[in-house]
Specification:
The chain is about 40% helix and about 25% strand. With about 150 residues, the chain is α+β, with helices and mostly antiparallel strands. A 6-stranded antiparallel β-sheet has the order 1-2-3-4-6-5. A hairpin with a 4-residue loop joins β2 and β3.
Length: about 150
């Protein structure tokens, strides 16, 4: 097993966090339940590049007529983030939050994996009500203000 994949599995095993191997050494899936909801997550391991990417995905695909508002929400959320980014697939409507680690020269450890995973799920949980609010018709500016005031 490549060292990056081993570090990923060690992190999840060390936290009794179930993870399923989809593509051996390269793709894993799991889920997370935060204070504001539950959602699926994926871990992409790129051994040749030394990268690990952790992705949280919203459970609802955004309808075409709502994509402009969700794109604005993602952009507004991203502006103040130090780690990670929100993304919208404009063709399919998927909303997700991505954090990553470039460990090509440094190597990956459980601690580095923890950093990108925790930053991801904490941020996604914080902004989940804003995504849901915009999907329910609220203006992106109001939805962002509500979650960033806390």
């Amino acid at each position: 097993m490549p060292p990056l994949a081993a570090a990923v599995l060690e992190f999840f095993a060390g936290h009794d966090w179930p993870v399923a191997e989809v593509e051996p050494g390269e793709l894993y899936e799991t889920s997370f339940e935060g204070e504001r909801g539950a959602w699926p997550c994926h871990v992409h391991v790129y051994p040749e590049d030394g990268r690990v990417v952790f992705v949280s995905t919203h459970t609802t695909l955004v309808e075409p007529e709502q994509r402009h508002a969700i794109a604005e929400l993602c952009n507004r959320a991203n502006f103040g983030l130090a780690v990670g980014n929100f993304e919208l697939d404009h063709d399919g409507g998927e909303v997700r939050f991505r954090t990553s680690l470039d460990a090509l020269d440094a190597g990956a450890t459980r601690e580095l994996i923890r950093n990108i995973v925790v930053a991801n799920v904490v941020t996604f949980d914080q902004y989940l009500p804003a995504i849901d609010a915009v999907l329910a018709g609220e203006a992106p500016t109001n939805a962002i203000a509500d979650v960033e005031e806390d």
